[in-house]
Design goal:
The protein is α+β, with helices and mostly antiparallel strands. The chain folds into two domains: 201 residues, no CATH class; 328 residues, 3-Layer(aba) Sandwich (Rossmann fold). Helix 8 packs across helix 9. The termini are far apart.
């Protein structure tokens, strides 16, 4: 059997004869009626504790209150962690300590903490504030509830808290018990995961999934210069539903356009710029297909767990085959950005067929990241968030939610050159990095950015952390299954990059270009770097139709 114990001290004030907690604490402070306890709390068998609805442990130690007789030993103590309340979304921590006063009269200290996400930053106060009563006699929970407060005579009431210095000390007292160091460490880990997971359940940011009509233009927006879209459902080999949206133009192409991770194709077909990329290509005779792969916030799959491998070896083959069969062609052209770009590079190395030419934007086989992103990967933030029970993150911001406010305060401190007063923008900068230069966006696009992003899963981020830490693509298990097969990538590829990409610097695509040129010869590969642009703004920029799109069009024209 393995178990965990820790020591906790709480201190505060009570008033004899008072029944109201707040009044008891206030008057007790004036009168100097100090009360504290020092407890060692044990979970008992951790296997039982984590599944027990009442999360009941044993508390041993002492209570000190001069008004009751000084330092008094606890004869029996019961502790309950995160008990479900009758009120939805509320949990309680419960304490019940049997002891005797200085004259030997039996007493019971009962206390409860209310774990509830109210307006205001209340996580600290909720978890460190104990509403406390002293009852006459040894009164168990069933007896107190049956008798009611009127019958269970109240000796004193007040509030005690964990002081900050005592909390710091408490964190050093967690001990695991079991057969050997591994079992002891596992017990502490399981307790910590339970504790933090319960807090995340109450205080964690709400997650929102975008509705199916998220691609529709806003009422006040301009009309897109595109025909009525054809929506083509796509089913992958693992039965995930994707979406292709076709704007049937001329005979050129067909060309698949795919956005970055965590964004919908709204990032490409936005109406906030004068001419977006699908419009640009449609007006020049292209049959345009927009791909929402499994990370798109318009799809239910966005809230599931998956890796980059799934996008590379499941989403891309399914999408390419759907377009080929629908149009009746043997191959397609592709313009893919960020993770869509990296995953297709991986897919081609893994043997994906049917690509005539490929414009690969910003991220390829050898992604390099700026030091700040390397630090984030080294800290294993995705693993930490998974440890506490989180499975997804979102760029949504809800000012009335504590979790959102706490995250936003932390993100204000995140060192980035792209400072912004928008909480949503700060989340994007933290989760995805410096994905655009503000100076390249018009205000309408800046305001609409939050509609382009959605939920992001932490399994994906763990995979990406491995890739960015090593500086090359690999599968989710860390195996080099892609670079070893670059001989499969014998299709024309043009790598494009923003000069000021402070997320994935240009050296990443440069290394991939050199790697492929060495492996397969230079004739198939080209590389373009665009001055004064960063990452997403190569497609969202207010002047992208002037500065970027003509070059991309020329690259597509080479193979039409």
């Amino acid at each position: 059997m393995s178990s965990v114990d820790f020591t906790e001290e709480m201190k505060g004030y009570v008033t004899l004869g008072e029944t109201d907690f707040e009044k008891g604490a206030k008057q007790g402070r004036k009168d100097g009626t100090f009360l504290m306890f020092h407890l060692t709390i044990s979970t008992g068998d951790i296997d039982v504790f984590v599944i027990d609805k009442r999360k009941e442990g044993v508390a041993e130690g002492w209570i000190e209150c001069e008004a009751l007789g000084g330092k008094l030993p606890v004869e029996k103590g019961i502790f309950n962690l995160f008990v479900e309340s009758e009120e939805t979304g509320v949990k309680n921590m419960l304490y019940r300590l049997f002891f005797a006063d200085g004259a030997g009269n039996p007493l019971t200290l009962t206390g409860f903490k209310v774990i509830r996400d109210d307006p205001g930053d209340d996580l600290w106060s909720d978890t460190t504030t104990l509403y406390t009563r002293i009852l006459k006699g040894h009164v168990d929970a069933a007896g107190e509830k049956a008798a009611g407060e009127e019958a269970a005579e109240i000796v004193a009431s007040g509030i005690i808290t964990i002081w900050l210095k005592d909390f710091a000390k408490q964190l050093t007292t967690f001990r695991g018990h079991g057969d050997g160091p591994a079992e002891q460490a596992d017990a502490v880990t399981r307790f910590g995961k339970l504790f933090m997971g319960e807090l995340w359940e109450v205080y964690g940011p709400h997650r929102r999934r975008y509705p199916a009509d998220a691609l529709q233009p806003r009422d006040e927006a301009r009309e897109l210069r595109l025909p009525e879209p054809e929506v083509h459902p796509v089913t992958t080999s693992d039965n995930v539903e994707l979406r292709l949206t076709r704007y049937k133009g001329g005979a050129k192409g067909p060309v698949i356009l795919a956005p970055g991770f965590g964004t919908s194709t709204l990032a490409l077909a936005t109406e906030t710029v004068d001419t977006n990329f699908p419009e640009y290509l449609y007006e020049r005779g292209y049959d345009v297909w927009l791909l929402d792969y499994r990370s798109s916030p318009v799809l239910p799959s966005a809230a599931t767990q998956y890796t980059v491998d799934d996008i590379a070896t499941r989403d891309w083959p399914a999408a390419i085959d759907t377009v080929r069969s629908s149009v009746g062609v043997s191959d397609v052209q592709v313009v893919a950005h960020c993770v869509a770009s990296m995953s297709l590079n991986m897919g081609l190395a893994a043997g994906v067929k049917g690509v005539r030419s490929f414009i690969s934007s910003q991220v390829a086989l050898t992604p390099k990241v700026v030091p700040l992103v390397r630090i984030k990967a080294a800290l294993r933030l995705a693993s930490v968030l998974r440890f506490i029970g989180a499975r997804t993150l979102t760029t949504d911001y809800h000012g009335d939610m504590l979790g959102d406010r706490v995250l936003d305060k932390a993100m204000r401190l995140w060192p980035t050159r792209e400072k912004c007063e928008s909480p949503v923008c700060r989340r994007i900068l933290f989760m995805y990095g410096e994905v655009f230069r503000h100076e390249q966006l018009n205000e309408a696009t800046h305001q609409a950015v939050h509609n382009m992003f959605g939920v992001a899963n932490l399994t994906f981020f763990r995979h990406m952390s491995k890739i960015t830490a090593r500086g090359q693509v690999m599968d989710a298990q860390g195996e080099d299954v892609y670079l070893a097969n670059v001989g499969n990538m014998t299709v024309p590829i043009t790598y494009i990059h923003g000069e000021f990409n402070n997320f994935f610097p240009p050296v990443g695509t440069k290394l991939t270009y050199q790697l492929l040129a060495k492996a397969n010869g230079p004739d198939l590969y080209r590389r373009l770097v665009f001055p004064n642009y960063a990452h997403m703004d190569t497609f969202l920029g207010k002047n992208a139709a002037r500065d970027i799109f003509p070059s991309l069009h020329l690259e597509l024209e080479r193979y039409n």
